[in-house]
């Protein structure tokens, strides 16, 4: 397997004049971008950075962030990107945990960086803002006279370290080797049937596995990464039309916002022929809406994680709603019975269990950064246990039902939120829905649906809808809460724990359609 620096050189050799990246007025071919990347590698040398050092970045999706990513691959640095919204404490944690040797920031993250004690004594790279005394401006790095960069890392070197989102504990570092990153990018190209010259909307964050995969995949096919610094629906629609974007790879929440935006109907989205989603299950209602809106040639449900990029792939997501498909090109998947002590045990077809993937797959990581207790929990007898619940049907297709921690045990019955959410999403009065279990003295947990309404609809109508859809009584919500917004993470994942904790805004009284 090639290292990523050599992989990029191959792209430059193959497609020197093809458009590689777009960011506002900036438009760079592969040859032009390589010259800038080479300058940044030289700048790393001037800062005293050496192969194996961690560079923390606190950046939005912009050309400089993508350039730093590729420069790290050439220089052998371990790119360690974190959320540009990170608090000073979160920056402190990342810098200290990764033992970072430098940090890059921009205007939107400047205040948090200034308040970070751990970042204070590091070399700092200022992106898009004037550098303060002692700092280095990215523009100065990019303007350096430098020879063409040569790769200094091999395929076994660590390419980057992503952090998983923490819930009750600190985030876990996920170091990934060059070979695993390239294998994942190749699989992404193959599984999404990307062809030469594809154009993708680069909006999934470059601190997230989906954003990184889009960036790397485009380089393999002479494609174009169209930067959108943060998700803005109107801005996304303008870029899709203006740059003739050919494929989208988003979380379901962003798709929802796209097709429900008032500008969608008037926007020319005819260039988009391939849709892919990951990060969360997609409701039946949204699958139907997207199929009608885009008429895509390919609609891929990609199920995976930061740790092991691909678990399963369904290349006809709308044809079998809810199915995550079968194991990807570089892995194997099985369902282990919930609570099983035998690591070789497999659940029967239709039996819900914990989803596990083979730990030796080409796309897999090899363990968390300095978290042996997390490794002991996740790895069992050569398999990585995902923490996700699901089952395999008689056809061998996987269905993801939620997280082990999200399972609702009500009256002794195990209830998965996803099935209920998909059912409710098909009601025309429902815009978004999240289902959780709330504490109850009698039942242990009661199934509770938090609903963002599209129009006037009440509990009785929603309960009748669930009955007509055939939901058994123990799965039907016993309570409904109407909210202004469903809380989500920066990459669009439902934050059920916030609903359980009461951290949500109730719908404005008397205006059930206000959130439409």
Q: Could you walk me through the main structural features you see in this protein, from its secondary elements to its overall organization?
A:
The protein is of the alpha/beta class. The chain has a domain at 407-500: ANL, C-terminal domain (GMP Synthetase, Chain A, domain 3), CATH 3.30.300. Helices cover 29% and strands 25% of the residues. The protein has 15 helices and 26 strands. Strands 12, 13, 14, 15, 16, 17, 18, 19, 20 and 21 form a ten-stranded mixed β-sheet that branches. Strands 4-3-5-6-7 form a five-stranded parallel β-sheet, sandwiched between helices. The chain is globular, with a radius of gyration of 23 Å. The N and C termini lie far apart (49 Å). The model has no long low-confidence stretch (mean pLDDT 93). InterPro entries: AMP-bd_C, AMP-bd_C_sf, AMP-dep_synth/lig_dom, ANL_N_sf. It holds the Pfam family AMP-binding_C.
What is the 3D shape? globular
Low-pLDDT windows of residues: none
CATH architecture type of one domain: 2-Layer Sandwich
The share of residues in helices is: 25-40%
């Amino acid at each position: 397997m090639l290292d990523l620096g050599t992989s990029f050189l191959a792209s430059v050799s193959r497609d020197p004049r093809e458009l590689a990246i777009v960011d506002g007025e900036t438009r760079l071919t592969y040859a032009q971008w390589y010259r800038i990347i080479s300058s940044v590698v030289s700048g790393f040398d001037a800062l005293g950075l050496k192969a194996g050092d961690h560079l923390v970045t606190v950046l939005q999706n912009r050309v400089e962030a993508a350039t730093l990513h590729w420069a790290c691959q050439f220089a052998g640095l371990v790119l360690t990107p974190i959320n540009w919204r990170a608090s000073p404490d979160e920056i402190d944690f990342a810098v200290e945990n990764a033992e970072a040797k430098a940090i890059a920031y921009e205007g939107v993250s400047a205040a948090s960086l200034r308040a970070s004690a751990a970042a204070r004594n590091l070399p700092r790279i200022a992106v898009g803002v004037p550098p303060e005394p002692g700092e280095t401006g990215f523009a100065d790095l990019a303007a350096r006279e430098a020879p063409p960069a040569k790769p200094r890392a091999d395929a076994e070197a660590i390419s980057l370290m992503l952090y998983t989102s923490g819930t009750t504990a600190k985030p876990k570092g996920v170091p990934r080797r060059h070979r695993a990153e390239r294998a994942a990018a190749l699989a992404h190209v193959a599984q999404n049937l990307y062809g030469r010259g594809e154009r993708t909307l680069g909006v999934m964050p470059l601190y997230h596995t989906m954003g990184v995969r889009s960036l790397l995949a485009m380089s393999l096919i002479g494609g174009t990464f169209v930067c959108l610094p943060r998700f803005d629906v109107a801005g996304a629609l303008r870029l899709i039309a203006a740059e003739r974007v050919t494929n989208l790879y988003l979380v379901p929440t962003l798709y929802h916002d796209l097709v429900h935006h008032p500008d969608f109907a008037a926007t020319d989205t005819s260039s988009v022929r391939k849709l892919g989603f990951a990060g969360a299950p997609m409701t039946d209602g949204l699958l139907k809406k997207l199929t009608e809106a885009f008429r895509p040639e390919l609609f891929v449900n990609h199920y995976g994680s930061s740790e092991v990029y691909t678990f399963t792939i369904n290349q006809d997501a709308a044809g079998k709603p809810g199915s995550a498909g079968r194991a990807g090109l570089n892995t194997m998947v099985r369902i282990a019975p919930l609570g099983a002590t035998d690591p070789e045990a497999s659940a029967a077809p239709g039996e819900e269990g914990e989803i596990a993937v083979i730990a030796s797959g080409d796309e897999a990581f090899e363990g968390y950064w300095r978290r042996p207790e997390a490794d002991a929990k996740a790895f069992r007898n050569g398999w990585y246990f995902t923490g996700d619940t699901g089952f395999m049907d008689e056809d061998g297709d996987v269905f993801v039902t939620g997280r082990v921690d999200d399972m609702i045990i009500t009256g002794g019955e195990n209830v998965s939120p996803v099935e209920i959410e998909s059912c409710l999403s098909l009601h025309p009065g429902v815009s978004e829905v999240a289902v959780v279990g709330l504490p109850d003295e009698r039942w242990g947990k009661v199934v509770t649906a938090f609903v963002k309404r599209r129009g006037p609809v009440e509990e009785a109508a929603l309960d009748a809808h669930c009955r007509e859809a055939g939901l058994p009584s123990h799965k039907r919500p016993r309570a409904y809460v109407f909210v202004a917004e469903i809380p989500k993470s920066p990459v669009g994942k439902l934050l059920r724990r916030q609903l359980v904790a009461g951290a949500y805004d109730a719908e404005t009284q008397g205006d059930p359609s206000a959130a439409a």
